[in-house]
Amino acid sequence: MCMEWGVGMTNNKKQMIINKKVQSLNQNLQSVKLEYDLAKNNALMRNLFDKTDTIVYREFENKKGYAIKGFIVYSDGLVDSVIMNENIIKPLLLTTFSEDCGDFMTYLMNQVLTVNELERTTDICKIIDSVTYGDTILFLDGYNDALILNTKSFATRSIDEPDAEKIIQGPKEGFVETLLQNLSLIRRRVRTNSLKMEFITFGTITQTKACICYIDGLVEPSVLKDLKKKIGSVQIDGVLDANYMAELIKSSRITPFTTVGQTQRPDAVIGKLLEGRIALFIDGTPVVLTLPYLFVENFQSSEDYYMNFYYASFSRLLRYFGFFITVVMPALYILVVGYHFEILPPSLLTNFTIEQQSVPLPASLELLIFLAVYDILRETGARMPPNIGQALSIVGALVIGDAAVSAKLVSAQTIIVVAVAGLANLLVPKISGPVIIIRYGLLLLVSFFGLLGITAGFAIILAHILSLDSYGVPYVLSNNKLTVQSQKDLLIRSPWWIMKTRDKQLTSNITRLKDKRSSGQ
Amino acid sequence: MKKYFKLLISCLLMITTLTGCWSYVGLSEISIVAGVSIDYDEVHKQYIMNFEIIDTLGTSKEEGVKSIIYEVRGDSVFGAVHNAKEKIANKLYFGNCNIIIVCHNLAKTKGILEITDFFMRDPQPREEIHLVISKEKSAKEILIVDQYEEMTSPYINELLVGDAMHEDATIAIPMYEVYDILQDGKQSVVLPVVGKATEGETTVVEVGGIAIFKDDKFLGFIESEESRALLIATNRMKKGALSFDLTGDGENDTSMQIVKSKTKPSFSFENGKITYHLDVELVGTLVEMHDIKHPITEKQILKLQEKMEQTLVKKVENIVKLSQVKFKSDFIGIGRTIYKQDLKLWKQLEPQWEKYFLNADVDVKCKITITGTGLID
After folding, report:
1. In terms of C-beta density within 10 A (0-12 exposed, 13-18 middle, 19 or more buried), how is residue B33 classed?
2. How far apart are CA B377 and CA B368, in angstroms?
3. What are the angstrom distances between the C-alpha of B192 and each of A211, A367, B174, B231, B314?
4. Rounded mean pLDDT for each run of 10 residues along chain A, 521 residues in total
5. What is the DSSP string of A139-167?
6. CB distance B102 to B116 below 8 Å
7. Interface touch A453/B57, C-beta < 8 Å
8. What is the CA radius of gyration of chain B?
9. Contacts of B19 in chain A (CB under 8 A)
10. What is the rounded CA–CA span in Å between residue A242 and residue A290?
């Protein structure tokens, strides 16, 4: 507790300094007012976007009827030039204005400009915000306000399957970096008015848009309130990826376990929304946060729900097993060969001994080094251009795997243990952060303290996991929830006709399926 | 966090200071003992122990596992094991040692108690370790036999275990039982026997027969055929085969493979004389028969069963007689049966048990059921 408090203190100090600066900046802006004089407004804008050459100022004059004069401001590259030419500049220049048009701003808004979204404002902050987001601002001579016209158009990635969460069966769409496009992927699938999307802004400098998304009636109000409170308490200069927020809004911040989910799949997000969870979309990243996030979700995959339930259950059990193996295998190996080799069958002991007596290092040090080598290989592979992959696999497989064993640098069983532990890790990509810490931790414990070390390690991990919660929901199942319905989606994926209720911990509206066939049975 | 940290530190401190579980022993520091042979040098009054140790450095993947044999002498069993340090740098590891071969001369003069005591007391060797008696002049001869297998001791162990599963020509009795019987003193120990045989130009080991003891001293051997009767009499028969000479011409002509075997011992004590009852129940299939013309009828099977029963009764009676007359050693376990079934009587008989045992009558009842006759008939 003490440590967390200390971190909080320093954070608070920094935050206060930032807040003061931001506030003073905003106050300066808010005190600035638009003028009736066009030239003054022009000078104001040029002053605001001083040394910003991407801002374009297009001045115009129409003298067909009553003469009007103005200029538009936009950020080059963020606007659609077709809309700009056809729907803004063309009508402005070709319309004949007369004196009985009344208020020209209103006339423009209502009868001239063919732009879907526009807003009349005097707020300088809003104008800056809009220009930098791809909107066009129209100033007219003689008016002390401006029109914000929606002309947003910027290069986006096409929607394709996320690399990190590939599946074989089921929807293959993935989120992209544009917030509105991502929201459209959700809205298209959930066509109800109870799907709520609330915009908020993060980042005192980046002004990143974000959206809290939930289904009204399913979401637990306390969780929503908690989330909003946590978000409100955060002021950061910029948010580039969802993980910034994930770490900031976590319930327990120090734990290696994730208590805020991250996904790139719209179908996964909707699945979570339907269970009463909340999604947090952040502009500029394809990763969407979902919460509360429980321990089991590390082992669930979207595909589980799209495939035959026998197969899906088997895969899920395999994932649990993989987690266990990848965490425990190195430690167990050292436990067996270092302390309790009586447990080995004679032939295996003989082989192990023969191998171990021909290599220079003791087993635990050897394993530690080669686990590190594996992690180096993995990390290299993850960040490398694909065309060097071949060289990497040669280094990995031949040099380290085969040659090191032949040269009697490392025993074959160590390589096998490392390989199995590494392979099993790939089964549970969502939990690979804690896995690495636990794996090395247990290995060190067992190297020094043997069986008791491993037992103590397990006790600590278990106590830690049991103490965690995500937004008030226990991270692992609490003892009073042991019912058939609470087990249906944990170790195995029950068939859809059994999963009739939502998790009671997540929502109070628990009925999700009414099925006459299965209830009659 | 601070609380967690304190907890962690105290846990680790306790593990290191209060327990002994942190003694890391690398596999590179041990020499795996596969088997041991024990002889006794009467002249120098010394135990001669031969350790068959797996040759971890000389073994290559192509040739399979090899072993080296080290001879060590010492005044006692522990002394010899201790002296092994002079020749073997690594720590001797007995956890995988399956076989201890003891020379019958040693077993006769010195007894086996010292050996069982050491191997039971030492924490490393397993309690299931097999103590076998060498038929040859010394136990070392068995260990250094030039057989096809690279290592002798594991092979003897395989022979013993395989024998217990299928053949029952000898007895596979783990060390802890031997030790129990020795401590108990109400029954005599019997141990498996291993010897040498010539197979073409090489000599191989063979198991068969049983060594009979009185207390912890060796008395003599009995042959494979008698050992089966002994196994039946002591309810140790599992899946063995029995052969019968039904025609009475001195040659075995009928065999059965035992599927299930059960022997229930009981006794009666009348007029100062013990009668030992054995109820043998055997279920098995016919595997060999030269006598009857095919096909066999049910009547013939009944007749066959009856004949077999008569023969078996005789065999079992003979082995009990053998224990009384030839060996004067209660390896059948009559005393143990009385002790188990009637403690009061046993306490009464115990001071003069030798006399009661030698005069005891034996009454064997046998029930053989043949469930199948193989593919013929």
Report:
1. buried
2. 19
3. 82, 44, 10, 12, 23
4. 44 67 68 84 87 89 86 89 88 85 85 88 87 89 89 83 86 90 91 91 88 92 91 88 90 88 93 92 93 90 90 93 94 91 86 87 90 88 80 79 84 91 90 92 90 88 90 78 74 86 82 74 46
5. EETT-S-EEEE--B----------GGG--
6. no
7. no
8. 25
9. 452
10. 10
| Contact yes or no for B98 and A342 at CB 8 A | no
Alpha carbon distance A69, A3 (integer Å): 62
CB B51 within 8 A of CB B36: yes
Which candidate from A349, A353, A450 shows the least CB-CB separation from B21? A450
Residue B363 Cα to chain centre, angstroms: 26
A452 vs chain B: nearest CA distance in angstroms?
7
Contact A363 B59 (CB under 8 A): no
| Facing A452 at nearest CB: one of B15, B30, B34 | B15
On whether the CB atoms of residues B210 and B222 are closer than 8 A, the answer is yes
Test A346 with B96 for CB contact under 8 angstroms.
yes
Q: A378, A423 in Cβ contact below 8 A?
A: no
Cβ contacts (< 8 Å) between B5 and chain A: which residues? none
Q: How far is B19 from chain A (nearest CA, A)?
A: 9
Residue type (1 letter), B333: G
Predicted confidence (pLDDT) per residue in A347-405, tens digit: 888 888 888 888 888 888 999 999 998 898 888 888 888 788 778 888 877 777 788 88
| CA A2 to each of CA A6, A7, B4, B5: distance values in angstroms, whole numbers, following the listed order | 6, 9, 12, 12
Which residue matches tokens 């590891």?
Answer: B93
Cβ of A452 within 8 Å of Cβ of B1? The answer is no
Show residues of chain A in contact with B59, CB under 8 Å: 354
For every residue of B185-228, DSSP letters joined together read -SS--EEEEEEEEEETTEEEEEEEEEEEEETTEEEEEE-HHHHH
Of A3, A4, A353, the CB nearest to B30: A353
CA distances from A81 to A61, A77, A84 (A): 19, 9, 5
Q: How far is A163 from chain B (nearest CA, A)?
A: 37
Q: Tell me which of A444, A452, A465 to substitute to probe the interface with B (most B C-beta atoms closer than 10 Å).
A: A452
Which structure tokens are listed for B67? 């072993």
Q: What is the ipTM of this complex?
A: 0.78
Structure tokens at B356: 């009661």
